[in-house]
Specification:
By secondary structure, the protein is an alpha/beta fold. It has a domain of about 120 residues: 3-Layer(aba) Sandwich (Rossmann fold), CATH 3.40.50.11890. It contains 15 helices and 10 strands. Strands 2-1-3-4 form a 4-stranded parallel β-sheet, with helices on both faces. A 4-stranded parallel β-sheet has the order 8-7-9-10. A two-stranded antiparallel sheet has the order 5-6. The radius of gyration is 20 Å and the shape is globular. About 5% of the residues have low confidence.
Length: about 325
């Protein structure tokens, strides 16, 4: 099976239907102990400093993995810098397969893009639909981990992040990933619950602050442990949850139309507001990546969401800096 790199979540059913293995470049970049070295490698190659750290990390990560010869790159619905990233990869001899999420979520345009990807990779719609059934069984385990996070309070914010974010490619082995999640679920169910108890849609006076984390996954995942050390816990990871496709539909096109991340911010806000109420959030951390156009959306989010919001900016995988730690501590004290 050939390995195909991904710049973000795409209709992964198509890649599996074609008999190939998807590899989310974001995941192997950020879990690499030399992640910052990958950013520096891109800058040495000529990438400007004023480019998102994720873009630079993806560039070097793809070149550091010779078994990845093709990349599905999202040209609409993710990062605008992806266009230039694709061209730099192409110069290095990588095969680039573009995919675009239509801005307005038009189902006909989305089906057309999926049809194009299916034809490019040599799959069929029948095979894609079979893969959806296969992958939905795996996704159901991720949904259970998410439920154990906010409803039973047995899963940490980082654990939630880790298992949901990996649904972008299922670590290249859906059945193996399912076994890993099944073992984790069994362990989590046997744990003592966190201090806060949520029963019958109501809650007692909280003994810990319940947070939502919205925006792209953080470039410094240690943020979750820092939050828990200060008496709070993330019980909602917005984009990571979207990667798990938590939608009740048998239509694979509709599944990717309901997926909120690539479309207008207003769809995301509706999802965030609904989950914030269901999960009894006390506040929200909005993570934005330096030099990313999505920073502008922060002003819309603040106008539309009636929750205390801390906007936290990250640039490189160098750990949570002192200023960010102070801002998180102050935010949590205010919520308490």
């Amino acid at each position: 099976m050939a390995k195909i790199g991904l710049t973000t979540t795409v209709p992964v059913e198509v890649i599996y239907a074609a008999g190939e293995t998807p590899v989310d470049l974001n995941n192997i970049f950020i879990t690499n102990p030399e992640a910052m070295r990958r950013v520096e490698d891109a800058e040495l190659a000529g990438f400007p400093r004023s480019v998102c750290g994720w873009i630079k990390g993806l560039y070097s990560t793809a070149l550091q993995n010779p078994d990845i010869q093709s990349i599905v790159a999202v040209t609409q619905g993710d990062c605008s810098n992806t266009h230039a990233l694709m061209e730099t990869w192409e110069v290095e001899g990588l095969r680039i397969i573009p995919f675009a999420f239509p801005y307005d979520g038009d189902p006909d345009m989305l089906r057309l893009q999926m049809d194009k990807l299916i034809n490019t990779l040599g799959a069929t719609w029948e095979e894609v639909n079979q893969q959806k059934k296969r992958l939905d069984r795996v996704r159901a385990l991720a949904w259970e981990i998410d439920r154990l996070t906010w409803e039973e309070n047995r899963v940490s914010g980082f654990e939630n992040h880790l298992y949901l974010v990996s649904c972008s490619d299922f670590n290249g082995d859906p059945e193996g990933y399912a076994q890993e999640m099944e073992k984790f679920i069994q362990t989590a169910r046997g744990r003592e619950s966190f201090a806060e108890k949520v029963r019958s849609g109501s809650r007692k006076k909280p003994q810990e602050v319940r947070l939502g984390f919205i925006g792209v996954p953080p470039i410094f995942p240690e943020l979750y442990d820092f939050i828990e050390e200060h008496g709070a816990r993330v019980v909602f990871n917005e984009v990571q949850r979207q990667f798990s496709m938590p939608f009740d539909t048998n239509d694979v096109v509709e599944q990717y139309r309901l997926y909120t991340y690539p479309y207008q911010v207003f769809q995301r806000i509706e999802d965030i507001a609904r989950e914030a109420e269901r999960r009894h959030l006390d506040g929200i951390i909005h993570y934005t990546q330096s030099f990313c156009y999505r920073q502008i959306e922060d002003l819309i989010i603040r106008k539309k969401l009636d929750y205390p919001i801390l906007t936290l900016e990250g640039e490189n995988p160098t750990g949570l800096d002192a200023r960010s730690k102070m801002r998180v501590e102050s935010f949590l004290e205010m919520l308490k």
